[in-house]
Structures are given as C-alpha cells and as structure tokens.
Amino acid sequence: MTRSSVWDVAEKPSQVQRRGRYLPDSMPHPAKMLPALAATAVEAYTGPGDLVLDPMCGIGTTLVEAAHLGRDAIGIEYEPRWAALAQANVGHARDHGAAGRAEVLVGDCRHLRSVVPADAAGQVAMILTSPPYGASTHGRIRTGSQCVRKSDYRYSADRANLAHRGLDEILASMTAMFREASFVLSPGGVVVLTARPYRRFGVLVDLPGRLVGAAEAGGFELVERNVALLCARRRDRLVPRASFFQLNEVRRARQHGAPLRVIAHEDVLVFARAS
Ligand SMILES: C[S@@+](CC[C@H](N)C(=O)[O-])C[C@H]1O[C@@H](n2cnc3c(N)ncnc32)[C@H](O)[C@@H]1O
Q1: Residues contacting residue 210 through CB under 8 Å, at least 6 positions apart
Q2: Which of 21, 23, 77, 82 to mutate to test the pocket of ligand 1 (most atoms within 8 A of CB)?
Q3: Is the pLDDT of residue 139 over 60?
Q4: Does residue 127 contact residue 188 with C-beta atoms inside 8 Å?
Q5: How far away, in angstroms, is 182 Cα from ligand 1 center?
Q6: Phi, psi of 37 (to 5 degrees)
Q7: Sequence-ordered list of residues with C-beta below 8 angstroms from that of 165, at least 6 positions apart, any chain
Q8: DSSP per-residue codes, 115-171
C-alpha cells in the first residue's frame, strides 16, 4: 500500500521563506520550489552527511536547504544562467552558516549519469526535483489601472529546454531520468518528485498521475504520495496562496458556469527501485 501524509509547507508565503536566504536575483525564475517543501523532504528521507541530487535544480532550492541541514548536494541545470545562480545561492547559504557543500553542473537530466562525478555513483541518498511544465502558469504579474503585465514567465528562449516541450516529451524525459537515477542512487535511495495538477485550456492535466507512469516505465515504483499544502492553516479556515494565473483560470471557468476550485496542494511523490 502507498503511504501518505500532509505537509504544512506554506504557513509563510514563498517570498517570506526566501527573504535573506536566497539572493534577490532568484526572484525571476518562473517556478521555484518552496524552501519549506525541500527542507521537509531532506529531513524526511536523508540523514546528516548524506548526498542529495537535484537534476533540474533551477536556482538551487534543494541544494540550499540540504546544505542548511548538513547534507551535501549536487545540482544539474540545463540553463547556465540558473546554474550560476544556484551556485551563488549555495555560496550565500555557506556564508550564513550552512554546513553542507554543493556543486552545480550545467547539463541535461536525461544524461545525469555522465554529468554527475564518477565518485558520486551509488552514493546519492535522495534525488529531489520538480519538472518544468505549463509555461502559462508561471510568471510575475504587475497590475496597472488599465492593464495587467506579465514578466519572467520563461526559463529561457532555448526551445530545447524541457519547459518548452510538450507533455509527452517531458514525460519521456522523466523516464530517461529515472533509468539513469538507478546508477547514482545508494541502496535504499529514493527519488522524490513534486508536481501539481494544472489546467490547460480549462482541462485538468493530472501531471502527478502521469509522472507515476513515467517512473514505472523507468523501473521505479511509488512508495509514498504526500500532499504539500500550498495554503496556510488558521484555526478553522485555510488561507490560500493561489497565483494570479490560478485565480484567473478559476474565475473564467465560473463565469462560464463550470464550478472549478483553486488547486491548493502539490503532490510529493516518493519512488523506490521496483522490486
Ligand atoms: C520547475 S524548475 C525547477 C526549480 C527548482 N526546483 C528551484 O527551486 O529553483 C525546472 C528546471 O529544469 C530546468 N531544465 C529544463 N530542461 C532541463 C534538462 N533537460 N535538464 C536539466 N534541467 C532542465 C529548467 O531550466 C528549470 O530551471
């Protein structure tokens, strides 16, 4: 049976979680992991001194949180811009007392075996990552009296970045990543993916469910499915932290009579090698 649990990771808004802990240049990255989510995963599935890998590390949230918790980490990122920022964020963490060390490499998650240093093979206790998807759901919004302006909603202009590919190609890439993961994981090591369902043209895309299929094709099985709450709990009510895009989508659907609700959680899928 698959185990499950609820993680409280949005008691503080994302900006508050990152303030002072990440360099201000991190803000424009369109889809950062919540620091509290990364920290919860690191604490749950690794111990001090363990090695953590994020093969799509963005601005390095996994690495920074791992370093603050005394784990070492390796990050892989396709875009040199984000890889440099991830390394700078790790330096910032070390300047603020983080004990762990982390190295960031520019590369492709589908070939992580050839990117990760040879001495890390079989040493990684946890791979923690979130795939890029749904560019329409990302970005920063500024509202004026006459208009709404969207910025920072792309990872790059490079069409080969997985964020610009269709869902089928992203899923095939995740299967490739799982196949390679077997070679770097320690015995008993796990792969943790965070992803949320999203809507495209009003239709719900069950990305977490599709990722389970991609993992199984890569030789892994789901052992835990957790819910990371993207809202805060205040006594008898939930405080939503929905993005402009989520609210916009739901409002539009309701105007057309569809009783949609905002999605207020992210799935945390935990995989082990299939037995
Ligand atoms: C959802 S973001 C990850 C964000 C990260 N968890 C953080 O907190 O900053 C996905 C990242 O994957 C990167 N990416 C896209 N294609 C890739 C590939 N083939 N290999 C490695 N990274 C890739 C994107 O540039 C993006 O930074």
Answers
A1: 167, 171
A2: 77
A3: no
A4: no
A5: 20
A6: -70, -45
A7: 173
A8: HS-GGGTT-EEEEEE-----GGG--EEEE-SS-EEEES--S-S-TTSGGGS-HHHHH
Instruction: Name the CATH superfamily, with its identifier, for domain 6-133+166-243+263-273.
Output: Vaccinia Virus protein VP39 (3.40.50.150)
pLDDT, tens digit, 9 for 90 and up, residues 222-268: 999 999 999 998 888 888 888 777 788 888 888 988 888 888 899 99
* 89-112 pLDDT per residue, tens: 999 999 999 999 999 999 999 999
Q: Please name the residue whose Cα sits nearest to atom 6 of ligand 1.
A: 33
* Rounded Cα–Cα distance for residues 63 and 42 (Å): 10
